[in-house]
Amino acid sequence: MFSRPAARSSAPDDPQASRPDPASLLRLLRYVRPYLGWLLLGILTTLLSAGLSLVFPKLFGNLIDASFLKRAPGGVADTGPLDRIVLLLLGVFAVVAVFTALQTFLISRVGVRVVADLRRAVFAHLLSLSPRFFASRRTGELTSRLTSDVSTVQTVVSSALAQLLSQIVTLIGGVTLMVLTSFRLSLFTLGVIPLIIGTAIVIGLRIRRAARDVQDKVAAANASAEEAISGVRVVQSFTAEDLERGRYGQGVEASFQASLRRIRLSSSLAGIMTFLAFGSLAGVLWYGGRQVLGGELTPGKLVSFLFYALQVGLGVGGLTGVFSQVQEALGASSRLFELLDTRSDLPLPAVPTPLCRLSGRVRFEDVSFGYGDEVGGPTLSGLDLDVLPGQTVALVGPSGAGKSTLVSLLPRFYDVTGGALTVDGVDVRQADLEELRAQVGLVPQETLLFSGSVAENILYGRQDADPQEVRAAARAANAEEFILKLPQGFDTAVGERGVKLSGGQRQRVAIARAILKNPRVLILDEATSALDNESEALVQDALEKLMVGRTTFVIAHRLSTIRGADLIVVMDAGRIVQRGTHAELLAEGGLYKDLYELQFRAEDRPVRMQAALPGA
């Protein structure tokens, strides 16, 4: 019995690999270093703002004493000290407001700048990884790392940093001034601080784990949604909307439950801290009131002490909030640095062999290759193939024979696991990877266009090409005519993945892109198998123009695309079982003839009938 489809998992292969590492926050300092001047200026304004805030309690205490204790001779109230203190308070308030605004701007600016750099660094590193990495990761999970995880880190780099500095200054200054105001009352008040800090640490650690779980569940839900949206035609064609709604709903519900657990912990922490804070305040009022009644304190000093105690309490509460934010960012930054620390399985040579303009000779020497999860042996085994410059080689064979795997070794999407693959005598593992790929062109069956204009998609082949070269490439690909009929011509947006164009149109744009690239080695991976006859004729004509003078590897299921090949290589179970021309292989018999009888004979019959007609 088959089980019902479950929500897709996006958990990494190695759960230990993404364990939160406190050192990951320290690594953020490397991204802060270029903006150290801005940060130091922000820190200075933070310190000044926090320091001036410690003046308020003293001035408020003086205000109280000036209001109730000081009177002019004859019992008439003396309002002069009161007026001066109020004016001084307003002046301090204004200065603190300016410093607070500067602090927020400066540190937030550093935060968003660091996050932008980090996001760029992660994305650039992802592009450097091989297809093997992406085969085990889902796109939605990776985009979640670039969005939600980086945003979580931004909170720490910007606002949390300012809060941390401000609360530290407030705590140190507040405790010092409390002691100077009343030593005995300070001992009474500070006795509760260890309890507050201990509570914050215990619950904060649980918040950290809960926050990490939330991020993982959100990433899983995003991955499910991205997969369904990108394949919406398949979803709708199979009327699987309810299935995908259910899958995404399960992911959203899981993230909701995880968020609920985090909210419960955060709410508990907030409630406990509130009780401890106000309970401490009540205790201070009781004990301080007794000192005022005993003449040990003035009412103004008690008010000042209460403000200092409140600032210290808020400082401790603020630190617990920062601690919670740090715990959340710890998991996020660990996942980001896990991605940055992922090394490509395509090691770059210390001193790469430069590739000049290739002539196009390709040799497979006893090549073996395996993805690592095969059952029954490697995908390719013992391949020997020598392709001369300018030759066209057609690869045929049953599904799963290894044809696409073989050509994916040419641009070094994967490394051979045995033997050697050379281009113009240079082992591709020793060549500069960008130089190699710059001279290898690929036209796949499933053409991927990006969501820009037609011209931008063609320019993907060579970014510095001028408009005349773009039009020439489109003309050579039999694409110019239909492009000029589009609403904005070459500036027409093609939609996500080129959805606004037909299959044949997308394929011709892809061919124009390859023509503009002007590669020496060309790979055509079933480039016409999904097209109707009219589109195929146009695409085939464009491909023939593209193939002229280039070493070309063609994977095809249609006889028309391989009949004129210089060499036909027949593959089965990862090995080359036959090679030769079309006529030679038919005469030889074997697998090629069987494939011809199954796939190509009906296609070949009209051609032979046409050739038999008088005058043909």
Q: Give the biggest sheet.
A: 6 strands, mixed
Structural class: alpha/beta
Percent in strands: 5-15%
What's the CATH topology name of the largest domain?
A: ABC transporter transmembrane region fold
Keywords: ATP-binding, Membrane, Nucleotide-binding, Transmembrane, Transmembrane helix
Subcellular location: Cell membrane
Pfam family, one: ABC_membrane
Protein name: ABC transporter transmembrane domain-containing protein
Structural key phrases:
ATP-binding; single chain; alpha/beta; 61% helix; 10 strands; disordered C terminus; disordered N terminus; Rossmann fold; 616 residues; 3 domains; six-stranded mixed β-sheet; 9% strand; four-stranded antiparallel β-sheet; elongated; ABC transporter transmembrane region fold; ABC1_TM_dom
Question: How are the SSEs ordered, and which strands pair?
Answer:
Elements (H helix, E strand, L loop, with lengths): L22 H5 L1 H4 L3 H18 L1 H14 L11 H49 L2 H5 L3 H43 L1 H8 L2 H38 L1 H6 L3 H53 L5 H43 L20 E8 L10 E8 L4 E5 L6 H6 L9 E6 L2 E2 L5 H6 L1 E5 L9 H6 L7 H10 L3 H5 L18 H15 L3 E5 L7 H15 L3 E5 L11 E6 L2 E6 L1 H7 L2 H22 L4
Parallel strand pairs: 3-8, 3-9, 6-7, 7-8
Antiparallel strand pairs: 1-2, 1-4, 4-5, 9-10
